[in-house]
Each structure stands twice: as structure tokens, then as C-alpha cells.
Amino acid sequence: MHKPLRRAVSRRRTALGVMLAVACAAASSLSAHAASALPGQGITVAPLRSSLAEEAFQTLLVSRGLQRLGYTVEPAKEVEPATAHLAVANGDATFMANHWSGLHQAFYVRSGGDAKLWHSEAYISGAAQGYLIDRKTAEQYHINNMAQLRDPKIARLFDADGDGKADLAGCTPGWGCELVVENHLTAYKLRKTVTHQQGNYPALMADVIQRHKLGKPVLYYTWTPYWVSAELVPGKDVVWLEVPFSSVPGGKKVDTRRPNGKDYGTLPSVQRIVANRAFIDGNPAAAKLFSLMQLPIADINAQNLRMRDGEDKPVDVARHTDAWISAHQQEFDDWITQALAAAQPGR
């Protein structure tokens, strides 16, 4: 090959190499820019949930959304509600997805209120809490109100340990609902005839379900969403008991009656996402995500029942969460799109 031709070919190869190098650098720069464009990039989030395993699903769903926004999300730690509110307020954790309006309001206020905490409007709506008995006993003895348990003869129907008092499967200390039960026992003058059983709630409910299967009377406190109401179906297997009048812990004058006139003794509840105020102020994308997310009670009941039936390991809950996202992909993606938009300057 002639020397001038070799020099021309060499120059073309050099120029091509330079262009390729520039293109690769540009692509690398764009890739790095795209990664850094996610609002959560470089920020670690620490979620909390209670010891109730059935609250892992709704917590993990929030974590999945934050991960899509670029946040690094740690596995949720188990902390009971009163301590969880304080930890989030102090910045030792970032959020919790199981704050019950009304039930946990005192925890929220004592932890600093709106100055240190923030809450969404309604992550889960239509929650209910209260007392239930088996339908057979309710119909046979015409029981429809907690006040009837003042009668020792009625109370003895629910005596499981032979002490002559009704055994009420109640709430684990520290959850908040135990305060509701304790308040009601005093307000409705039930101390002499009713024993509030406290301890490991799933174990208490396993005993209730076994007694029901044997055809024995049962009395318990529960809430929705939770798998218990899928196992003992209100209106079919069990019935809600009303209370003689409204009474809540702290002595505040409130009306706990529902729109249909029924009074189960608790305020109609929603579950909210509660987060650290400083985190919310500095992370508009996360704040927008929290405000948009909504999860139907029926979906939680169904997932909780799968846990009850044996799919209760972390890998199972992760699979349930990812399956929910796939089944609601358009809605989930819309949450992410709006959250990303909220992080843009001027939004």
C-alpha cells in the first residue's frame, strides 16, 4: 500500500476511534445522569412495623414504591406502635404504614405531633374494630350488646377456664387496642364478670377458632383488615356486639356510632402512613407517593388468609406483594409517575 494511502486510512481509524470514545463517554454520562435523576438516589429509608406479621404486606408495598423512586430501603424492623411513633419522630426510623387513626392518636401526639411527624390521609379505609361472639350463642340467648355480660349467667356462657367469668380474647399490650378494652370494662361495669385475656394475639385467636369448631361459645376483640374475619365471618359464623354508649380512653366526649346507627365502641378507622417530618420536607417524591397510595381491605384480608394457611415466610410475603403490583401495574406506575413529577423543580 502506498504511504499516502496508509496515512489516510490511519487518520480515518483515529478519527473513528475518537468518535467512538466520545459516544461511549456520552452514553456513560447519560446513564449516570439517568441514575442520579431518581429522587431517592443515595438516601436510605428505615421502615417499622408492629410484631403482627400480617402488617408486613402493606409495609412492603410502600417499600417497593420507594425503591422504584431510587431509595435504598432497609428490611422493616418490628417495634410496637407507641415506640414506633417515637422512633419515627426522632429520626431513628423513617416511616410506618400501620398507624390507626383514633387508636394511635395519643401515640402520635405524645411523640411530637405534626411538628415532628407527618401522616397520609387514608392508606387503608373502612377499618372496623370491636367485640364479636359466635352466632349460635347470640341467637339462642338473644345477645347483641356488651352490657348483657354484666349478667353472671350470660357471662358464664363464655367461661373457658372455669372461674365463672367470661373470657374475652383481647389485645396484646402495647398495641393500643388493649386500652380500648380496658376502658370499656370499667365504663360498662364488666370487671366483675369479664376477664380480659392478653398475650400473644394469634395464639389467643387460635384457641378461639378451635373452641368455635367444637361448637363452644366464643367472645373476642378483633379488627379489619385481618385474617380472623375471613376465618370467622361476621354475619355468618359470628356477630358484632354493640356497646351501651360511646366511651373512649381518656374520657373525651365522642360519638362512636356508625352511619347506620350501630355502635361497636370504636371510632371508624383508617390506617395511615406516618413518616418523619424532616424526611417528608426534604423528599417531595416520597411525600407524594405516601399521599397517593391506597390499598383495599379485601386485598389485605385475602393476603392475610394466605399467611394463615401457611404462606407466612418473608419470601412468601414478598411474592404476594409483587403479585399485587403486577395485578395493579397501571395504578402502581401512575403513583410512581406522579411521585417523580413532584420531585421536579417548581412542582
Order of helices and strands: HEEHEEHEHEEHHEHEHEHEEHHHHH
Overall tally of domains: 2
Shape type? elongated
Q: How much strand content do the residues show? A: 15-25%
State the major sheet: 8 strands, mixed
Overview features:
D-Maltodextrin-Binding Protein, domain 2, eight-stranded mixed β-sheet, two-stranded parallel sheet, alpha/beta, 347 residues, 2 domains, 12 strands, 45% helix
Description:
The protein has helices at 3-36, 56-68, 81-89, 105-110, 135-141, 152-156, 177-187, 201-213, 228-231, 277-282, 284-292, 297-308, 314-327, 329-342; strands at 44-45, 47-49, 72-73, 77-78, 95-100, 117-119, 124-134, 166-169, 194-197, 219-224, 238-241, 269-276. The chain is an alpha/beta fold. The strands form three sheets. Strands 2, 4, 5, 6, 7, 10, 11 and 12 form an eight-stranded mixed beta sheet that branches. Strands 1-3 form a two-stranded parallel sheet. A two-stranded parallel sheet has the order 8-9. It is elongated, with a radius of gyration of 27 Å.
Please outline what is shown here.
The protein has helices spanning 3-36, 56-68, 81-89, 105-110, 135-141, 152-156, 177-187, 201-213, 228-231, 277-282, 284-292, 297-308, 314-327, 329-342; strands spanning 44-45, 47-49, 72-73, 77-78, 95-100, 117-119, 124-134, 166-169, 194-197, 219-224, 238-241, 269-276. It has 347 residues and is α/β, with parallel strands linked by helices.
